[in-house]
Amino acid sequence: MIMESRLSFGRWEAITLLLNTICVQIFIDFPRVMAEEGATAGWLLVLYNSAIVFFIFSFILKLFLKFEGKDLLDISEEIGGNVLRVIVGFFIIIYFAFILSMVLREFGEGMQVIAFPESPLNFIIMLFLVGIIAGAYFGLESIARFHVLAVPIIIIGLLIILLSVTQYYNFSNLFPVMGTGSYNIFINGFHRISTFSALIILFIITPFLKTHKDLKAVGFTTIGMAAVLLTVTTIIYLVVIPYPVAVESFIPIYQVARLIDIPRIFERIESVFIVIWTGSILLYLSVAFYFLVYTFQKTFKLTYYRPLIIPFAILVFNFSLLPDNYLSTVHLEAKYFSNFAWILAFGMTIILLGVGNIMKNKRQKGTGESD
Question: Which residue spans adopt a coiled-coil conformation according to this UniProt entry (predicted)?
């Protein structure tokens, strides 16, 4: 299939796609990580990171004004030719390959513990890899449209779980308000803006959005909605499961769902969690895998991306099995992803756009002087 350069989709498709790629962390270990980083102030750390990302995105938007309709690879080629395009593309490919492999492994381990304790891990991962391959085969347009249908259902399911444990709410669990201290939250917690690193996808799909106004609307709406969902989820997790117990939970929201008790109406309502958990992560994995092969295709200017699907699926499958166990996977993700993902998503983007704007200004100035 030829690169989908003529593809375009609306704001809501882009918002739901990006919203799930950011908020999928809720169904993995995000609330636990926030409790680990900020203790009783984990929710405050989320708000702080969201505010930083809001201002960073505002700055990036201004830099994007002169590059309407171009993505990071187009801009890097304009600045430094084929060499810079390949370098930037390489880093983006590494980003998607790493996080895709880690999430696939965590998902497989979690599914094995919760639903398939007798099944081999590699079989579970391979089973879900089939769905990821199918998503990449049908392309971005189909993936985006499916998000429009599925993401609202996932959000409603999550809210049902959070509202069904009101009898366990104890807001005194949020004290002391500053948790582990202001320095730990506002200085050491800065790197947690990596939570929003999936916004790099927005800087890749800019050719698929119609105008700069669409880019602005999609970005701000996604950041706002994600901030609300991440903050509310973290607050409710902390008021239900107090610190320091909160840092010991395996798949935190699943542990919250297990507390739901509605006799004579529902039994084992945590099954709702498994449905929305599986749906959210499969959507995320499909998006990440698609952009992995798409970025490789565009980086090396290949005509077709479908022949890349199976080879990359095999690579991702093998990479996901490299960590020794679940704890090793979590450690790798915490050590590398949270510390460096923000540098790629925001730092590299700002540098590229900044250099591009300087070059354009010099060219315009040079043209004006020559006239």
Answer: none
Higher pLDDT, 273 or 67: 67
Kindly tell me if the per-residue pLDDT of 41 is higher than 80.
yes
DSSP SS3 for 204: coil
- Domains: count for the chain: 1
Confirm if 15 and 221 have CB atoms less than 8 A apart: yes
User: CA-based Rg of the chain, rounded to a whole angstrom?
Assistant: 21
Is residue 304 classed as helix, strand or coil in its secondary structure? strand
Provide φ and ψ at 304, rounded to 5°: -125, 145
User: Considering the domain boundaries, does residue 4 fall inside one?
Assistant: no
225 burial level (CB within 10 Å; 0-12, 13-18, 19+): middle
**Rounded CA gap, 157 and 12, in Å?**
19
Whether 226 and 22 have beta carbons less than 8 Å apart is answered as yes
* Within a domain: 176: yes
Name the 3-class secondary structure at 2.
Answer: strand
Asked if residue 1 belongs to a domain, the reply is no
Give the separation between CA 56 and CA 52, rounded to whole angstroms.
Answer: 6
Residue 243, helix vs strand vs coil:
coil
pLDDT grade for 266, boundaries at 50, 70 and 90: low
What's the rounded Cα separation, in Å, for the pair 54 and 60?
10
| Ramachandran angles phi, psi of 2, nearest 5° | -70, 150
Structural domain of residue 15, as residue ranges? 11-370
Q: Which residues contact 64 (CB under 8 A, 6 or more apart)?
A: 206, 212, 215, 353
Nearest to 347 by CA among 197, 151, 153: 197
Burial of 176 (0-12, 13-18, 19+ CB in 10 A): exposed
CATH code, domain carrying 246: 1.20.1740.10
- What is the chain's mean pLDDT, rounded? 91
Compute the distance between CA of residue 244 and CA of residue 256 in angstroms, rounded to an integer.
15
pLDDT band of residue 1 (cuts 50, 70, 90) is very low
Dist CA 283 CA 288 (whole Å): 9
Tell me whether residue 2 is in a domain.
Answer: no
Query: Model confidence over 103-127: pLDDT tens digits?
Result: 999 999 999 988 888 889 999 999 8
